[in-house]
Structure formats: C-alpha cells, structure tokens
Amino acid sequence: MNKKVHDLFIIGGGVNGCGVARDAAGRGLSVVLTEMKDLGSATSSSSTKLFHGGLRYLEFFEFRLVKEALDEREVLLKAMPHISWPMRFILPLNKSQRFESNTPVSKLINKIFPFYKNRRPAWLIRVGLFLYDLMGGRKILPPTLSVSCTERKGCSKAWRKNLCEYKGHFSEKR
C-alpha cells in the first residue's frame, strides 16, 4: 500500500465519485479513488446521464438552486466536450396536463385562476422555461423553442403545440 498521505480518499467510482475526484484533482489536491468493480458500473450505469438545471424546482420558487444547477451544467458541458452534447426534449402542451397540487406555484395558480384546477396551462410552462433560459444564460445549449406538428406528421389535434427544450447529455463509455 502506498504510504503517501493524500488530501482526499473517495469510495465509489460512480458519476458523483468520479466528478468529485476530477474536481478535486483539478484544484491541485492529491486524490485516491476506489471502486469495487468498474468505474460507473453500478447505479451510474442506469442513470439518465443528463445535466439538467432543476426545472421542476421553479414550482417551489427555488431560484437560487436552479441558477446554481444551470451554471454548473454550463461548466460541465464546457469541461467535457468530448463526452457531452445537447439533447433535445419535446414537451407536449395539452390543456389536460395536470401538476402536483401541493407546490407553491400550483397553490397560487389555483387561488388566482380556480378554473385551471390543478392544470398546468401552456402559458405557465412557457413562462417557466423563459425564466429557466434567462437564469441559465444558455451559452452552450440552445434556448427553448416553440415547435408544432401537423396531422400530416401524425399528431392529433390535441398535441400540436409543443416546446423544444435542451438538456446536457453525457456518455461515460470508454
């Protein structure tokens, strides 16, 4: 065993362990990372592998948390262009969409607009994504776009309005 004293000893070579090791080594610390099997072989192998900014936390008015997550996403995308890239998500907009009735935003909407009754109106989603884009800076990922589809493309009339939002995706494949 190496008798050298290290600054940091990390148990677990998943996405978090490897991320902490990389960050610490980048700051000049001496790091040892241990893993029982192969790096990223356990829980991390089944994750979505997305760098997201916590869009759902806007419903809880967690603006600082969302801003920090979006800033960190930009840092990660910039630091790892060889294994990360934008991934497009299409968010369908439909009048029947519902959301949790116990979030601060849902309580506010239900109080101001009782006729929405736990529905998530398209304008509310658009406002949330506008704030998300504004807070995130979007230096690497494209901003949210409106996307429509037609019957010719196989969309029913109820699902023609959509929003296109981007998240960061990474692959740890070696």
Q: C-alpha Rg, in Å? A: 21 Å
Average pLDDT, all residues = 83
**Beta strand count:** 6
| Number of separate structural domains | 2
- Which H/E pattern describes the elements? EHEEHEHHEE
- Gross morphology: elongated
How many DSSP helices? 4
Q: Give helix % range.
A: 25-40%
Largest sheet: 4 strands, antiparallel
- Output the structural class: alpha+beta
Distance between the termini: 27 Å
Strand content is 15-25%
- pLDDT < 50 stretches: none
Describe this structure in words.
The chain is of the alpha+beta class. The protein folds into two domains: 1-47, no CATH class; 49-170, no CATH class. Helix content is 30%, strand content 19%. It has four helices and six strands, in the order βαββαβααββ. It has helices at residues 15-26, 63-79, 104-112, 122-136; strands spanning 8-11, 31-34, 50-51, 84-92, 145-148, 161-170. The strands form two sheets. Strands 3, 4, 5 and 6 form a four-stranded antiparallel β-sheet that branches. A two-stranded parallel sheet has the order 1-2. Helix 1 links the parallel strand 1 (8-11) and strand 2. The longest helix is centred in the middle third of the chain and has 17 residues, at 63-79. The model has no long low-confidence stretch (mean pLDDT 83).
